[in-house]
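Q: Can I see a sequence and its folded structure?
A: Here is a first one.
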Amino acid sequence: MAIGLWYFAQQLVVRGSRGLALEAPVLVWESVELRPGEVPYQNTEAGTFQTRPRTGDALVFELKKGPSKQNAFAVGITVGRAETNDVPIDDVSVSRFHAYFHHDLKTGWKLYDAESSNGTWLGALKLTPKTGEPIGDRSRVRFGDVEMTFYEPKSFSAFLQKRMASGGAGGPVPL
């Protein structure tokens, strides 16, 4: 499930020097830049599910199996347009089951294309279907037309702190 960047900014402020309590890497899907005079979305809406990043905001997907996800692919973290994926992406360029991530304690994280219609990219490399490619911290990935960044937990925390300091994620968060 996607969570707005603002939620993580609030958690960072609350936890202070302890940082974020993330156990897995995240994918960050950022929206287009703010236009002059636009105010970024800063509040959560109770009971609503955000499927696309709002202008000036970002959605964050933790790379872990959801406890309620009922997909047939138990080996990896699935990405696709169908809601049954671990990382559901609301975009017509994304296949129902587009790609998946797999973590191995020895080799780290790998990204696989699942024979998608519009391809999976790791940086400038278009992935060969069903062939895993190692993915590193802060790597740019693309599923169809949707671009995201892969962050390990420490790097995501640093990204968030920098974004908050510059006025992103709703600006500096008051205590």
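Q: Show me another, different protein.
A: A second, unrelated one:
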Amino acid sequence: MTTANEIVQLARGKDRPTALEFFAEVFDGFQEFHGDRLFSDDEAIVGGLALLDHKPVTVIGIQKGRDLKENLQRNFGAPHPEGYRKALRLMKQAEKFRRPVITFINTAGAFCGIGAEERGEGEAIARNLMEMSNLTVPIIAIIIGEGGSGGALALAVGDEVWMLEHSIYAILSPEGFASILWKDGSRAAEAAELMKITAHELYDLGIVDKVIAETSRGHQMERSRLMRDLRVALTKKLAELSQLPTADLLEKRYQRFRQY
């Protein structure tokens, strides 16, 4: 059985599919949009239009790099406030044109540098939480690697929250947990076993609604099968959510998060 600490390492692995790869392999005709119309284009967050089962959807993801050069370009998947504002711009556009929203989350957390704070990182995250709570189109959020702190939650206020089998979702990293609790960050592996941050643990707690399998009979699943299974699951769930009256959709979303 895979331990929580091993899953942490898998979630952080440089070979995990990125948001852009999900866009390309799960959807058709992805067209990227850029910029928040206020400051700049944050390349840690990517998004735009795509087709799922021949129907338009808005897809948004937090993008990590494959190597040092790309990670520097993507800020190691740590979004600035303009990234969250770009995401919100795309979500409000989706609402205007009645398109469902699907988010792909992989971040250790939002960027905490001085510039990000000066430009309102906390406000940008808080506004996304508020706006997503009341967005009148279906939202599905998927944790594809790390789901860290408010930086992840800012894209995860969904009607359904799913996790890949080898992903994690937590208020802080195991290293941060160990540093706070024991004043010893080297005990991160021990912390991971206590924190209940893996997909199956969070599913059992009712925090997430679905675990997307990455293994079959103990072996790593072929990537093409993973993408195909995810496409089928998204198509089915969005068809269900799209049938709900707007008032019911919003009430169910509200009650989903109130139950915690």
